[in-house]
Amino acid sequence: MSNEALIVFNPSGRRGRFPLGTPVLQAARALGVDLDSVCGGRGMCGRCQVDLCEGHFAKHGIHSVAGNLNAKTETEYAWELRRGPLVDGRRLGCSALLQGDVVIDVPPGSQVHRQIVRKRAEVVDIELDPMVRLYFVEVQEPDMYLASSDLRRLKEALTYEWHLGDLKSDVRVVQHLQAALRQGHWQVTTAVHNDERIIGVWAGLQEKIYGMAVDVGSTTIAAHLCDLQTGEVMASGGRMNPQIRFGEDLMSRVSYIMMNPGGDEAMTAAVREAVNGLAEDLAAEAGIGVHAIIEATFVGNPIMQSLVFGINPVELGGAPFALATDEAIDGVWATELDLVIHPNARVYGLPCIAGHVGADTAAVILSETPYLGEELMLIVDVGTNAEIVLGNRHRLLAASSPTGPAFEGAQITCGQRAAAGAIERVRVDPHTLEPRVKVIGCDRWSNEDEFAEAVAATGVTGICGSGIIEAVAELFLAGVISHDGVINGSLTRRTPRIVAEGRTWSYVLYQDDERTVRVTQNDIRAIQLAKGALYAGIKLLMEAFGTGHVDRIRLAGAFGAHIDVRYAMILGMIPDCEFDHVTAAGNAAGTGARIALLSRKARAEIEEVVRRVEKLETATEARFQEHFVAAMAIPHKSDPFPRLREAVDLPVAPVGGQDRARRSGGSRRVRLVAQPGNEEPRPPDAEPEARSEGDA
Q1: Is the pTM of this model over 0.90?
Q2: Are 583 and 550 in contact (CB under 8 A)?
Q3: For residues 226 and 288, is the Cβ–Cβ distance under 8 A?
Q4: What is 132-203's CATH number, 3.10.20.880, 1.10.510.10, 3.50.50.60, 3.40.1190.10?
């Protein structure tokens, strides 16, 4: 029996082996995991709380069970006596000792550098026509000589005063109707859904009701609380998706369900609990009761959308990726989804398009309306899977491309999600090869005075998605990285930033007394694989459409809002286009969910539009691999990118099948042809395969 245990931390993906009896907090510190502690592991502060993830995790080769941690200790019992009981199954990381292999989830409240959720409400023009409207009426009192129920007289009043005839009602309305009528002295406000059904009744005048638009991403859940009477966004917020403890990516979660009976129910419960917490947060921020939320719309990728509505997504885990339904989910009671909003609230889910193209893409289409114009628009929503839409009013095509989590900072040696202290901007001097960086939460560059003081509270903790993209692009422009993505090790004679890393090289991006942030050869490969898959999916859509160019590119999602379009094009993530025609769409999926919340016409419109979308399955397209291989080069093996070259002085393209930029050993920002005879050796095995897991 081994005297060591393997521990894997979510959401970071960091992993390592430690002797049995090692505290979880100690292992987290050794691996650089973001786990808080103020008391130094004495069991006093309670900030190092963690959750044990139980089940079989095939990706990690771990069977994680409660018995692989020690029993709850006296220290933990003493803390509970002082502070109250821990959440069921939760442990203090300083007291939980390794007894076997485990998967540990670090909840958001235990993280020092909590993720900054950058999904805010976009300003858009919406034709306000909500599904739920309020109607104030005065109801005739009952009469001994006129046999008529309270409900019938309420309906008659609505018909007389508001011309609403043939209304239906729920039994839940009837349960509260008589008390409301008498408390309001026969004056009540009713909420009517779609001019067809009474779903709420209040004594007296009720002036406000609210709706919630929710974008359930695989990593982040974002929501907007809206006044249904005015359309005003009252509050916006986000939470990490707790399903991440079951798997970092979508296929890992489907695999977990396949291997753990009841796994789908556990994931559904987890995401609904997070939505409820978010609803309570938004209601508190807006100063309203959570029961004032009487309508909700949901969007998400096919797996997330399925789990929210309690549909097992296992069929989406393999070909032919069959959806349970491609229709909108309408008329669901909030209580059917265990939501804590108004018990009679209605929930609407936008339609999914295909097995890998979900309701979030439908919401993006609704927000961006490519189907209304002549201009050929490309919409890219970058995430663990990239959803791609191409078209105009004549034709719409959509596909999903498996980019993986590298663009979100995962699978990167020093990668992390966007949080205070993460490097998000990078510049590299082409002559000295010296870098300067900006981190989230600080406006100063690292070469400016008082930078160290400005980041003292958080430190420089790692590099996020936008940062790694800029780092790779800047290193390419400076000649440190070749067109085929290889770090030029011969440049060690010019800069100490390039250091040997086994049989390859890495570039030290930032270093202080606490941490070294570096870009490794494997990091570059991970970015190449991700951007190659994205570009290959785009090329397939362009070929199917019969075009060699696009007129406009919209980058959707929180990631698209913070990426510099120049670097996206330099890397070859997106096709050649005029820079001013490449713009961020913000959280377009959330905006689409908000439009559907506030406009019944929009719901009918998007339900009709998605039926016209042509779907391409990248997994079965014969030319995907060919496009993918060509797109691994930076920016591309064969596509010329003429507009990009007009704006940016790119390094010299490969000559004669070999990458001269790599051999020249210098900066290639200027267009000079490398001279033969200046070849420098590079380390053997300079082109390793990218890692499939996060750094340990």
Answers
A1: no
A2: no
A3: no
A4: 3.10.20.880
